[in-house]
Protein 1
Amino acid sequence: MKLSNLFAVGKKLDNQQRITVSIFSFLLPIFIWSLVSYAPFIWHPKVEISSPGEVGYFKQGMLIDREIFDKEVEAAINESKTIPQGTPANPIYLPAPHEVVIALYTAFTTEPKRRSEKWLHESLWDSIQVIFWGFVLSSLFGVPLGILAGTYDVFSKLFEPFIEFFRYLPAPAFGALAVAVLGIYDAPKIAIIFIGTFFQQVLVVSNTTRKLDPALLEAAMTLGAKKLSLLFRVVIPGIITHLYKDLRLLLGWAWTYLIVAELIGTSSGITWFITQQARYKNFENVFAAIIIIGVIGLTTDLILAALGKKMFIWEKSKAKA
Amino acid sequence: MTHIELPSYLDQSADVKDRFDRMKQRPVTLKVNNLHKKFMSSHGEVVALKDINFETYKREFVCVIGPSGCGKSTLIRILAGLETPTSGEVLLDGKAVDGPSQERGMVFQGYTLFPWLTIKKNVMFGLEMAGHSKASSEEQAFQWIDLVGLSKFANAYPHQLSGGMKQRVAIARALANQPRILLMDEPFGALDAQTRAKMQSYLHEIWKNIDVTILFITHDLDEAIYLADRVLVLKANPGEVHEMIEVPVPHPRSPDDLLSPEFLATKKRLEELIHPPETDVAINQDHLNMVRMVSIDNEVESVF
Ligand SMILES: Nc1ncnc2c1ncn2[C@@H]1O[C@H](COP(=O)(O)OP(=O)(O)O)[C@@H](O)[C@H]1O
Ligand SMILES: [Mg+2]
């Protein structure tokens, strides 16, 4: 394999290369993270005190800015006191990879601090349910409206101008309102996901619907298809693969509203876990939780992509053909 | 250019003349009366079609030919009911055309097969729309697929087929509805020369064996003469009827006819109509500003 093959403009890599490069897309950030964590000369702006010497306010295990530490060391030398000892360290908010890996495991195995609190997997399950219902409700209305607006100009003009306006309103702005109307539990959170997804969804779906080749509609009409059969036998099957891709993308956006949604009313789900852990300064747990969100998101998308390939067999070999 | 003396395209042998006489006794399938079509565009008004009048007889094969942009597609789309004329009327078997319907089948240059349906389901589409039961649609679909020689591919998806095969499916799909007239807009325009010639023979075979009138748009003179009973020649700006030419080449036709005197005479006439002899001024203005850009010591001094 010649290296220059990797940089051929507009050419697809072969399968082996694609997998290798995709793995690198994960390895690269992990490598940078490891470098910053384990190579002390790169960053490490702090010093972890191993022996406080005679400096009154130093304690073992304390993190001190390097400059202050150096000053104290100098002072100790000048005054011939016991010199404090320490090792370079990163700030507490940047845990090293191995700490996060351990946290990933222990987060699931440590019992919650109080009886009323939830295990991590229970919090995660709450979050997934909020996302699921928010997205399903949004799609239940958003997809049909989008298809109508994309098919009939009258619906396009009826819905889209207002939706264009509404989509600029940030969903979190409706938090207080949602709580006032829907209470403090899951309902207002689902509502925020709904508001964040729905308006984009109508516009994205209507746009996709409009991209259907009009020649297919004309062909269907010369074959005797009329109004409803045009909609159900041509428009919908004609856009279904693109619609499915849109929904996968929109599901990703729905996740981005999750954290805000879960802060509304009583904090819950993975967000509750993250804020709680941040309060205890367990940043390795915070990182672990963030990584778990990413893993869940990516895994669902990969599963949905695989399902799509199964469902839409006529698309499958198109790329090869 | 022509060194051989060609007959006039108007000369018809006794057999050919007899056939045309009998053809004109047949019922009229399609009648186009004073058809006008204007488009409003950002550059103002475009007259796409101006005062088009013609008729086709039952089971006739008519080709429409004309320079690009003369309104061929507009005409066929009006006939299909996909476009409304500005004025004038189209009658099919004496009834005015209003909107698309399965009695006027259409085959487009871009295949327009439904990619999500198998070949069989594509052909069944129109039959199901017409209210046939699933079983009966399926049975008929198989017949039509067999007719275009694609039985092996009944369960394949369109993207698995070559261009020529796709167009055969499109023809089968349109014919399955047993339309009164089959409208074809440059259906073979995207095919390579060899496939195209084959498709022309197939289409002739199908036409001979089925009760259907065909209106076929092309910009290929050979294709028009080879296929048509009569050729409707349009001119551009505005799109008007130039002439309706009766093709004097006898039936049945074979690719060998491409060099027959009748064929060449007809082609000469079509060329005169479509590419009128260029004036000296036009020729003088349209040339490349070419200078020699090969170095003097080039290995190949001259290409001759
Ligand atoms: N929908 C339309 N709106 C405006 N002008 C059109 C439209 N369709 C066709 N035309 C114009 O009408 C003329 C004839 O077009 P067309 O029927 O496609 O020609 P052809 O098929 O012979 O190449 C062209 O000048 C074209 O620009
Ligand atoms: Mg055209």
Protein 2
Amino acid sequence: MNTTTKPSGSGAQKMDVIVEAVTPLNDLVTRFDFKRANGEDFPTFSGGAHTVIEMQDGDRVRLNPYSLMSDPVQTASYSISVRRDDEGRGGSLFMHNHVKVGDRMRLSTPVNLFCLDLRAKKHIFVAGGIGITPFLGMIAQLERTQGRWELHYSGRSRALASYAEQLTRQHGSKVHIYFDDQSQTIDIDGLLSGQPLGSHLYVCGPAGMISWVLGRAADSAWPSDSVHSEEFLAPQSGEPFQVRLCQSDKTIEVGAHESLLEAIERAGVAAPYLCRGGACGQCETTVLEYDGEFQHRDHWLEDAEHASGKKIMPCVSRFVGKTLVLDR
Amino acid sequence: MSKFQFPESIKSRPVYGTLEPRGDVAYLLVADAEGAEAIYDLATAGAHVARNAHIIYLPNETGDKYTGMLQALNPAQLYIGPSYEAALSRIQRVLSNARMGLQVCLSGTEGLMGKALIEVSAAGIPHSAVQFEHSGSVARRMQCVHCKGITENVSTDPFVCSHCGLNLFVRDHYSRRLAAFQGVCIDAEDPGNVPDPVELYS
Ligand code: FES
């Protein structure tokens, strides 16, 4: 079996695309614009949606989610911004080092796990670093519908705060920028205490920032249903381990630098997924038998489910031990 | 006062808890009749509640039985009114001036809690963030699914729609949008064959 063909029936539908532009924004972030290979328009999407990009890296297929950052109704092209992660598993480095204008790639149709709550009287966005990207689409959407919003965006420095200048130019006083290297920080308590009833808060950025903001919001008695966050986890490397896939009657080896989901796909077994980052719940898999310890890393399962030994999210979680048998 | 335990029912049927103090933030407390006791217990459990609280209280048939108790809490603001309609514009004003973090606690009859929740939801507070405690009457606010008219304070099943006169069966199917349970014609197939009304939960 050709291990590079993606098993059918998993993930969102795919579209063939051509790289239209590659635009370095600063030392870390590059924007990629795509058009459809068949000349048609892309589907519209809602602000906050992401696409899963398929990279053909030698004989390895990499699938990474990125937020769509273009205007949701401009369907002639899609844009993503990729931050180079030198310590990561290589997807962002592949995008930075190998993808050129004219290349053919595949994108999934948009999936939104971080959408605006349109009942909100006001939308408050808090972004850190590359976490700005989903807000670009949301802002474009709200500008069209005259929605009320404000953005608080912190970046490492003026040079590394992608899109900060453009946002300030276009939206003026709705945009508040903070530079770490000038010791500027968001006055989160002041921000949370002054908002009109019916406001919703959205956070995207590094894990530490998200938990800080969510914690402050809870302490300020904000309803948890008025607070939204998105964090895509990248799968982490770990010790290789063996897995028995019961339905498919296969025993597979999960390599140190691949995820359990990737290993299942490599074996030619169709496994469901959407986000590949522990957020959507789509890949939830039943554990039939185990002898060892789980390394749960998802944001999906409840603590009790993690402890039960009955479920695993193969896109981000791993296992250490003797036996693991999955209902797959 | 012992609290009425509603028997388990379909998912649509609202369930109520016990009011609990949360942060040192603004509180909007809306109650009717015996619902005053829930406010008293809340303010006793959290010493910070009363000084942050705007209490809107409708004694209804309990008269001044509980009003002295609420005054003694010394809340930031206390309004005692003759009817929900009379209190409505005040509820709306408190909500429109409020900031995120406001805690809303509703207590008393289901009709009052449901109607106040309509305003609170319209102001943008998710219903999951609102606290409820039922006390007093178990009578229901019912919507006739045929003529859409609302009959307040229904305490028997079946009952007669106060608008169209149909004999209605009291369902546990609830609408948050209308703050009412659904009443469905009980003798549509066999007109006139209406069982004797029984007291709800008797
Ligand atoms: S694919 Fe979304 S949680 Fe695993």
